[in-house]
Records
---
Amino acid sequence: MELDTATAFTPLASLAGGVLIGLSAVMVMALFGRIAGISGITRGVMGALTPGAAGIGDAGWRIGFVLGLIAAPLAVATATGALPRQTVPDALPGMAIAGLVVGVGTALGSGCTSGHGVCGLARLSPRSFAAVGTFMAAAFATVFILRHLV
Amino acid sequence: MRSIAGFLAGLVFGLGLVVSGMADPAKVLNFLDLFGTWDPSLAFVMGGASVTTYAGYRLTWRRPAPALASRFDVPSARQIDAPLLTGAALFGIGWGIGGFCPGPALTALPMAAPGTLVFVPAMLLGLWLGGRAKTAMERTSGATA
């Protein structure tokens, strides 16, 4: 991935965004009594929308949550007049592999950066501490290999 | 009511991803590149999110039940098992390749970058396959999730 251009260090914006993410996780607990794990919420939506599923059932809030996630950049565009800028890797076979592995891994490991990383650490869950240590180590190692060895 | 409340929670989460910079894979990959163009910003995202959630959960759990559900339903599994560690390792590898974890990938959809439009369907397929693999592994080991 030829993407190693420097990005600006943004401690204040990143801290503020982190607090918003935390507030959302607290909203999900206070409203629905559930963990705000994006991979689990997405699986819940897929299960409810699968042909033959027994209706939407309890998944209404999850469908709303995913739509809210997708609407966020549109809200930013309404406020600022421009969609958020981002740089997405453009090696498409790599992105297909990455997406597949992220999906398999988060389903198998029962969570991702949000469910284990934010909510699990806040619950002091031993499983989440193990998961976060493992996925952070794997991610650091992967980037090191792809950017400095290959 | 539940759908609208869910939408608002998702919107706040997505705004957090955009404001923090975590919706930008370049920033995520630079955080993960300790020996290159390192950008430590994401440590502030994780710190702000975890501390806010830690405090907010403890305030929330003083109430007898959530506002729109009958009870708090948090995971009860304690065992650090093979599906957990295998899954987390795979997730970390994919995160390191693409710079996307599930939330930012979904939030990136309106910008419609080609990489996003390839990543998200592959991730949905992976979530389905991974769910089946987890069921199979649990059946083999006799463990319960």
Note: Residues 29 and 96 of chain B are 7 Å apart (CA to CA).
---
Amino acid sequence: MVHTIQQNNAPLEFNAKPRKFAMWLFVVSSIIMFGGFTSYYLVFSAAKGKGHGLVLPDAFMYSTAVLVLSSVFLFLAARALRSKQLKQQQLFLWITVILGIAFAYLQFQAWTSLYMSGAVLINNNAAISMIYLLSGMHLLHIVAGLAFVVSALISSYRNVEHAKLVYRQDIASIFWHFIDILWIYLYVFLLLNS
Amino acid sequence: MSTISTHDTHHDDHGHHHETFLTKYVFSQDHKMIAKQFLITGIIMAVIAMILSILFRIQLAWPDQNFPLLEQLLGKWAEGGRIKPDFYLALVTIHGTIMVFFVLTAGLSGTFSNLLIPLQVGARDMASPFLNMLSYWFFFAACVIMMSSFFIQTGPASAGWTVYPPLSAVPKAIPGSGLGMTLWLISMILFVASSLMGGINYVSTILNMRTKGMDFWKMPLTIWAFFLTAVLGILSFPVLVAGVVLLIFDRSVGTSFYLSDMVFGTQIMPNEGGSPILWQHLFWFLGHPEVYIVIMPAMGLSSEIIAVNSRKPIFGYHAMVYSLIGITVLSLIVWGHHMFVTGMNPFLGGVFMITTLIIAVPSAVKTFNWLATLWKGNIRFTPGMLFAIGMVSFFISGGLTGIWLGNATLDINLHDTYFVVAHFHLVMGSAAIFGMLAGVYHWFPKMFGRLMDSKLAYLHFWVTFVCTYLVFFPLHFLGLDGVPRRYYAFTEFEFMHKWMTVNKLVTWSAIVAGLAQVAFLFNFFYSIFRGKRAPQNPWESNTLEWTTPVERIHGNWPGEIPTVHRWPYDYSKPGAESDFIPQTVPFSETMSSNLFHDFEGNAEAEQIQREWNAKNDPSKNNE
Amino acid sequence: MILPEAASEHGKKIDQMFEITLILTSIVFIATHIVLFIFTYIYRYNKARKAYYYPHNNMIERIWTIVPALVLTVLVLMGFLTWRSIFHKVEDPNNKPLSVEVTSSQFQWDIRYPGKDGIVGKKNYKLVTSTNNLGIDFSDRNSQDDLVADEIVLPVNKAVRFTLGSKDVIHSFYMPHFRIQLNTVPGMPTYFEFTPTITTDEMKAKTGDPNFHYVLLCSKICGTNHFNMQKVVRIVSEKEYEEWLTNQKPYLTDDLRKAFNLPVPVTEPAKAADTTATASVKPSIENQLALKK
């Protein structure tokens, strides 16, 4: 079959809006997955009359602070991009990445101190196992979020067209701020339902 | 098909590359090609699942007989020519999993959402073609992993498609819960990822990429159905992920989310404190919306096909949409009706009974509206139409028994019996398969530019329709007599002996129905290459996809995307020249058939129409 | 009737609901199918004719939304009330139901009758050993007179309360003639109370089948022999029941008495039992101790 290709060169123009919308939908489905985990926790602790019953390690507090700070820098990066200061955007993105990695490190610290205190993953109290699971699943999201931030960073260095830069930055922002808020929710949830 | 070299003429710089065989047929990002990939993979999986079902039907019909052929085919799973009990359960489990997830979710929704959403809303492609491609390949990987479990020592998962722990969590309980179950869970995670990527794309495309004039109330019912299906998927599939992750931890790490108080023989298991009931909650929170994820696309396809072939507008378009929305919302709060007899709080059982029976109302509305669409129609019996009518019939037959099962009181005696098997095979199995086949026959010209043979299609329809009823209708009576499902043989209980002859009838019908599918498969693959060439609009339909060229070009429309002016159901409109008016025809070209109602309160347009009527047909102004 | 005759009090109520639902749905089933096939036949394609443009009629649509809604409301209310009457039993202290415990495991049912005290004693899965198959805790006085039974025998017209449990995976306790089904879940006891109304002998006469007997089935997929988890159920007169009960043996054997440090009627209690008694809560440890000695 030989196509009449000439009529076919109407370009599939780049349209950021539906893709950003898709990101929002992903955020929704992610919220629902964590909703599934936390409702397991609620039903479990209501049925057994107990939660994890632990004092959460301090590392979680520090990691929360680090994550909030990283969100602030990502916000600054987006603002720098809007005023077309790429150098500044790159700097702030780098800081975000480093803080993200620091967050991951602190989560490992928290797990270690939980482990040391005897609250291990394989536990007859599923609520304690759930602490590992929630923070672990969240950490997977952090990895994905870092990938988005790095993608924004790379396109910033490559100096692609502005619309795409803004799009990549927006995608990274939506997701990163989401996982920031998600972590705060999870942390507060675990604090309240001990 | 020849390779395409003329594509060099592309000069836009938006990531268009040289089209090779690999990018055109394998890692294609074109929604139409992805739809075909979903369809053909779905058909292959359906054939596999059907063969599995015939295998276990043979066991049920002739439990005392040896078939040396089976041993040759299945090796150690059928030593001495008789299927082993463990393998029987594996067959049941994998048959269910493949049919529910791979055929009726990915094969149905994946195929037609991909094909029709951009074409019917007027978009060049999906919101993210890359994500779309990924969605297919995740699905493909899920299929391969699921099938690979047939080739391992301990066999595939065999705890039923609902994989209730502890049976699914402890390899000691059944061999299939070893590696086979691990593969099942991995496959399911990939599948959910695929569904989510697909669903996110569908929703985003429908909300953001409709062509000019295509407002919500001008969308065909197919699009409404795909949209709500995708929304439902996004809302419920992540919960299955949560459930599956916990199950993986219980199985592979040793946590106790679902496990407690277990002793196998005299070996006391270390897990303590979990609750197996919680898996059922998480599973059915997806599981029940899942059955609507399966049936709603079939409803949408059937609505469209029935309207086109009755040459009549769908009756009660708004009611059809609202009932779909009603089903979507209600389906999220009925999951407990799968758990009436698990020993959960009886008060909760009562609540779930109420929500469950309410969901019958929108379903009833849909049925009556389909019947009303047929009334005073001018029905063309195209193959697609026959299957759509078959879908309505199965939906009624299976749906009505839902009123029995949704009633907690009756469910006490019917739960987990053959009555349930008959119910869901009719209402979501057969009805959805018929909706899917209707869609395949109807949109085949859009996919391949050729028509399928209608004589073979009629043969396919009648044999399948009759045999499906012969297979599933008798099963109701087994259930009423108290025969539980997933029984390997009816030999051990005396009261079941009387059902042995019925089992033979059912098995023979299943075999004949299976053979009828050969007619379909031959027709399908033969017509791809040798079928009659299709005209641009073979069914004289109004929707946008039939305004695209038969050649199926990348980007769908040469030049501008057409603008939409009217709803998709202007069939047999009084005063119009032909019995259909495509959505792209403006009202200014159809002055003789316009109704004031069409203008949705646009005073200027109404005034113009009034003046035209006064000149040409004054009686119309009195309406 | 399509269902076998109900042999329990609540079963009759279920059957009433069943009949109403059967009649209603049959009417709808037949009517809609007649309409479906007649319409497709009458309005088949004819070149000369044009279909009738009839996009909607709010009145008709309202009617066929409201009528099913009303019918379903009636069904829901009836179902809800029947459901409540089955699961919410008011305790009558003067007429306590007979307690029977059923434990499922792959692939058998174990029956435990309460003995003279009328109470089935405690058990703990951690106590399971090859001699103490159910993990009965004999330090609970109520357990000590509990009886083993290899069939379920119940007196007619007397309320019975089943306590259901499972040792390994989920099974389901299903007795179709009595309209009973309830899952047995490891770690979560479930309860079903009912009153049988027809004895096995009466049922034999009614069905005209001299081999008739009530069945107990497993209806939740549970493994290889799911299709063959049998237990004979007999409904007999009060007198026959008492007679049968006196022939049943207690669970507590001499070996178990020793293990639980209880007095053995004939011989003196063994000294060694002292040390194992406290450890008996953790049988794995108990075995190790035994080995060390």
Note: Chain A touches chain B through 46 residues (CB under 8 Å).
